[in-house]
Design brief:
Order of helices and strands: HEEHEHHEHEHEEHEHEE
Low-confidence stretches: 8-16
Distance between the termini: 49 Å
CATH architecture of the largest domain: 3-Layer(aba) Sandwich
CATH class of the largest domain: Alpha Beta
Mean pLDDT: 91
Number of strands: 10
Structural class: alpha+beta
CATH topology of the largest domain: Glutaredoxin
Strand order of the largest sheet: 5-4-3-6-7
Shape: elongated
Number of domains: 2
CATH superfamily of the largest domain: Glutaredoxin
Length: about 220
């Protein structure tokens, strides 16, 4: 690959793959149903779940907003702020949220970005042209208090998200940061966690003689926290 082609490739990767895990989440300013926000200020000192939905006044999106609202206190306990987004106007957000609150007797407390110009949607790669060029797919970005992107999940328009799984992912990330461990498949809070694997042959041999609650192999040992 020539130098010019490599530079062109790097530019394509940067445009198509941004944002990337463990890199700073792109900053932006945007209008919401609760006023204008600057993301870096909204994010400062808190985790943020930034999530997009295809459109206001649609059935799957309505069930998701109800789900997020029902778990609002659970997110707050974990120092997590919610931030929604769709390519709709502020007035549409206000009207839709009012209707949800009236029809389902639940309060929507988090702001929702009105991304009519699709600036934030493109910045976070929420537009998938093969599905729609004018609606954001169901994307979730988890950003830590330092503004670093720690995880994201993308769903098709026809599949609603599991809010409990988002909370589980946040629990895992926060525990990983606190204890410097990893979580196994299907981990739930209270389950044993994975001890980081040995980095040398000597440490691998020692691991086999250490006492842990679960140790099936030199590279896979679990313990309680």
């Amino acid at each position: 690959m020539s130098q010019q082609n490599y530079q062109d490739y790097e530019e394509i990767v940067e445009v198509c793959c941004c944002p990337r895990l463990h890199e700073p989440a792109p900053d932006f300013e945007a209008d919401t149903n609760r006023g204008k926000i600057k993301f870096s200020e909204y994010n400062k000192g808190s985790w943020v779940v930034l999530f997009s939905h295809p459109a206001d006044f649609t059935p799957v999106c309505t069930t998701e907003f109800i789900g997020f609202a029902q778990k609002q206190e659970e997110f707050e306990k974990r120092n997590v702020k919610l931030l929604g987004l769709s390519i709709d106007s502020v007035f549409s957000h206000i009207a839709w949220i009012r209707q949800i609150e009236e029809d389902f007797d639940i309060k929507i407390k988090f702001p929702v970005i009105a991304d009519l110009g699709m600036e934030v949607s493109h910045l976070y790669n929420m537009i998938q042209p093969a599905i729609s060029e004018v609606h954001a797919v169901r994307t979730i970005f988890i950003i830590d208090p330092e503004g670093i992107l720690r995880g994201y999940i993308m769903f098709p328009m026809s599949v609603g998200r599991n809010i409990d799984e988002i909370i589980r992912m946040i629990d895992a990330l926060q525990l990983v940061d606190e204890k410097q461990i990893a979580t196994p498949a299907n981990w739930q809070p209270g389950d044993n966690v994975i001890i980081p694997p040995p980095q040398t042959s000597e440490d691998a041999e020692k691991r086999l003689h250490e006492k842990h609650e679960e140790c099936n192999s030199w590279y896979l040992c679990k313990t309680g926290v």
